[in-house]
Amino acid sequence: MSAAIQAQVLEANRRFYAAFEALDLDAMEAVWERSSRAACLHPGGAWLIGWEEVRRGWEMIVDATSYIEVEVTGVDAWVEDPLGWVTCVERVRGPDGQVAEVAATNIYFLGTDGWRLILHHASPVIRAGAFGAEPA
Amino acid sequence: MSAAIQAQVLEANRRFYAAFEALDLDAMEAVWERSSRAACLHPGGAWLIGWEEVRRGWEMIVDATSYIEVEVTGVDAWVEDPLGWVTCVERVRGPDGQVAEVAATNIYFLGTDGWRLILHHASPVIRAGAFGAEPA
After folding, report:
1. Euclidean distance between CA atoms A99 and A105, whole angstroms
2. Any bridge partners for residue A83, and if so which?
3. Contacting residues of A for B78, CB less than 8 Å apart
4. Mutate which: A33, A41, A47, vs B, most B CBs within 10 A
5. Is B114 left (phi over 0), alpha (psi -120 to 50) or beta?
6. Paired strand residues for B89
7. DSSP code of residue B94
């Protein structure tokens, strides 16, 4: 796996989280592949399939959120051209200072206009370390 | 996207859920790419990265589970050679008859020995239809 291509995928991932943290719908639109295969799942939610549903989901989040900080940790990125995928943990802090841990999978496709997000799956980390991370 | 290749990915996805439902660790091993990039997240859990952690997670589930039925619904599959990815909803029924809805992303890689699972991300559907699926 080329380190240069991996860096491109990581840069696309940073752009996604920058758009999320800025609650900037235009920047979010620029990050996604706006197609029928765009797929998104917010923590605890159901699948949103196709760009129309995906966009509406982000719109609802942006409308409902006054302020958010997203720290992205534990990032792993892999590439099999023309796809790259990232696993990470989002530490999401709201205006009340409460932090929620969210595990995410992000899949990017390298199209004619660069790496675009085609899948975002985010889920609440309820039992951190329940599997694997802790000694038995 | 070739329908024949999409059918191969769907067949790999069926094998994965058959191994899960049968609580068959050998079959589960045969489904996965046993590499450092194997990544798995069970509902509410944290990331398990690398085959050793992934295997241990399944082992714990198999050891802790006497019986399970897994109905796989809402399946969408896409392919960008050499990767295929599936989104679906697992309706998981335990011995007590209780059904839990779990949303999943599964990524498969076409290696020399066929399609192998390289990522499984499963998350609890807490607010079904919270985004997109219901009228506002």
Report:
1. 19
2. A80, A109
3. 37, 118
4. A47
5. left
6. B73, B103
7. -
CA distance B3 to chain A (A): 15
Chain A, chain B: beta-carbon pairs less than 8 Å apart:
138
Please give the distance of CA B101 from its chain centroid, rounded to a whole number: 13
Asked if residue A51 has pLDDT above 60, the reply is yes
- Closest-CA distance, B119 to chain A, in angstroms, reads 9
Measured in degrees and rounded to the nearest 5, phi and psi for residue A63 equal: -65, -35
Nearest to B83 among A49, A80, A87 (CB): A80
Q: pLDDT digit string (tens) for B32-87? A: 999 999 999 999 999 999 999 999 999 999 999 999 999 999 999 999 999 999 99
pLDDT tens-digit series, residues A120-129: 999 999 865 4
Is-above-0.90 flag for pTM? yes
